[in-house]
Amino acid sequence: MVKIGAIELPEFPLLLAPMEDVSDPPFRALCKEQGADVVYTEFISSEGLIRDAAKSTMKLDIYEKERPVGIQIFGANLDSMLRAVEIVEKSYPDIIDINFGCPVKKVVSKGAGAGILKDICLMEKLTAEMVKRTHLPVTVKTRLGWDHDSIRIVEVAERLQDVGIKALSIHGRTRAQMYKGNADWVPIAAVKNNPRMHIPIFGNGDVNSPERAMEMRDSYGLDGAMIGRACIGNPWFFKQVKHYFETGTHLEPISMSERVEAARRHLKMAIDWKGEVLGVLETRRHYTNYFKGIPNFKPYRTKMVTSDHSQDVFKAFDEVETKFAAHQFA
Q: Is 256-323 the same fold as 2-247?
């Protein structure tokens, strides 16, 4: 069993990574149904929260069926982060997660996200004060370091644990790498194998198959895997990994009817939550993966990602289900 504070999780839990414009309530619901053990919100700006910016406050929406759920916030100003904690607590999440890993320039340029990897002392101070401010378990998601020459993740992990975090998720790339190259899990394993560490250490980056998840568990000895890009448009990834762990075999391919039904539900939930325009727009990125591997699919995909009205997208789903009903996925 793995524990985040008092939250009990199964052995080697699978966590849905916080992803901007991806891990919203509709997608989190689908992933939860398919076996995600913990889900995280999109990352939320502390400055946006204290200004009551609509886009930031909307991301605080969480639902009972998602639990345990973590709300992730980012920022570099201590006062703003502490005020954000108080706002976040009112949504009653199970976990508050601090983003010290986002590599995007607009975040980093303000010293937030992975930008704080240039100032480990500030990272430690921010974390310590946030832990003191809330009764909820605080976790951190970060990267190996700013660049290859400044990787101090074993020391960073010790310092964050010492000020009270309850779990640490580490993406196996530096900020300089962004999402290029291969994730390096060796430094993450070094954190886990440090005899001083006693909190769960979760690995993130390039967990793109059940075999890779098993490798992270068995070869690197980590406590769990945080899944990001592999589950976009593929919420079944969590179920596929767990099936592989239990049986050593791959789950039968997801049928066309299941794929279409998931896409329909995803779009409907998105529209119910954020309205027609945003619901249609922000669900587009999932369609390529929902229907990955279908030959001659381009005309239908084009219709799905260019239509501005949900009725046209739903119609495209119906056409796909009818035309490709007999398609066998690899």
A: no
| pLDDT, mean of residues 69-75 | 94
CATH 1.10.1200 fits 256-323, yes or no: yes
> Is the per-residue pLDDT at 329 higher than 80?
no
Cβ neighbours around 74 below 10 Å, total: 27
Catalytic status, residue 102: yes
Dihedral Cα 283, 235, 314, 275, nearest 10 deg: -40
In this structure, which CATH number among 3.20.20.70, 3.40.50.1220, 2.60.40.10, 2.60.120.20 belongs to the domain 2-247? 3.20.20.70
% the chain with pLDDT above 70? 99
Q: Which residue, among 164, 196, 329, has the nearest Cα to 253 in the 3D structure?
A: 329
Give the angle 228-180-190 at the CA atoms, nearest 5°.
Answer: 70
Q: Would you give the DSSP letter of residue 24?
A: S
> Which of 31, 102, 121, 231 is the catalytic position?
102
- Which DSSP symbol is given to 147? S
Residue pair 31/39 in contact by the 8 Å Cβ criterion? yes
Across the range 64-91, mean pLDDT stands at 92
Q: Where are the domains of the chain?
A: 2-247, 256-323
Among candidate residues 275, 259, 244, the one with its CA nearest the CA of residue 325: 259
